[in-house]
# Entry
Amino acid sequence: MDSQVNEIDPVTVEVEVKVPWDRVKRGLDDSYGKLQKSVRVRGFRPGKAPRSVLQKLYGSQVRSEVIATLVEEGLLEAVQHHELAVVASPEVRSLPTIAKGEPLSFTAKIEVRPKVDEVVTEGLAIERPSTAVTEAEIDAAIERLRQQHAEIVTPEEPRPAAEGDLLTIDYEVEIDGEKNEEMKAEGRPVELGGGRLLPEFDEGLRGKRVGEEFEIRVAYDDETPNVDLRGKRALFRVKITELRQKLLPDLDDEFAKDLGEYETLAELREATKKKLAEAAENKAKSSLREQVIEKLVEKNPVPVPPSLIEQQEQAMRRELAFLAQIAGPGFDFGESGEMRDRAEKKVRAALLMGELARREKLTVEPEEIDAKLQEIAEASGKHIAKVRVEYAGEKRESLANKLLEDKLLDFLLERATVTDAADAD
# Structure
């Protein structure tokens, strides 16, 4: 089988394949031989129908099956022979036809992993975020604790909905005058002033009472994250079915004691400061890792196969769709173009990190995985044998990939120039 590869661009090649006639003939002979044994033809004993009759009855089917098989085999051999790093299914421009005595010729376009001549890791300048904890941040954290430990009650006297109330609502939706069943909701919990509702929706709920039915109108502009709603007008027909309010505990030593870990409010504040400092440190580390990957991508503008970008974008959209189901109306999907840019950067980063691991011979040994599993067992309180079972197969491979990613990031951070945010001008 002969094959030739022509580069269209750094991530796309054209493969020309010629399957010799003797191999085509062998495929036809094998197919008709199997067919003769398996089909029944009126007027002939089983297995005795001549090939000429089978050709008249099943010729088109046999040729199609043989062509499909030879195209698949031809592409596989060409990929292996030319050592092509294929990233997507080949696109056969047109299926070939069988001509007696002639080779079966076809052309396919294939997306491939780009060749990376070098990975630049010098000059990666990043900034370490400040990890200082302010009094305002401590106050905000303790206020969140108050909110979490608030008593949720129904007001003694019926009253209009106000800031901070927890409502349960039903609503139907019309988009440009047509009902939209997908946006309809029953028993949806919302919090006024929680920042998760559309401003018009939040404002429209205030001052309304349980059992009251009313309308809220929303005009979506061209910047609306959900592209299907851009430039459209929505009419929400809403009914409040329940109204509850929060009774916040007093901010004193008794509140600290009720949390079960502290004797005084001062102890609570000190412990809160420590937790915030740890969180800030972890956030700073995450930021450094994200920045160093961003700089790596900027320094190495390698081409990216479109199919990989598409796969990554679809994965991101599925994740956002799941989050949107939880968040409800007003969830920010982000700009479509921005999402595609993020997807492209993710793919490019993965390509560069993979090449960097190969060049620097960075690997993860079995004993390193076992050590991590032991760490997981100790942290979770599970027996190591149970943890090993839980992390078998794909999950173990995923853990190995995470450990390799950590090694790569450490490698990059060691070579990066890090400036503290507080010192930067």
Remarks:
- The first strand starts at residue 2 and ends at 9.
- Residues 163 and 310 are 43 Å apart (CA to CA).
- The chain has a mean pLDDT of 91.
- The first helix runs from residue 21 to 38.
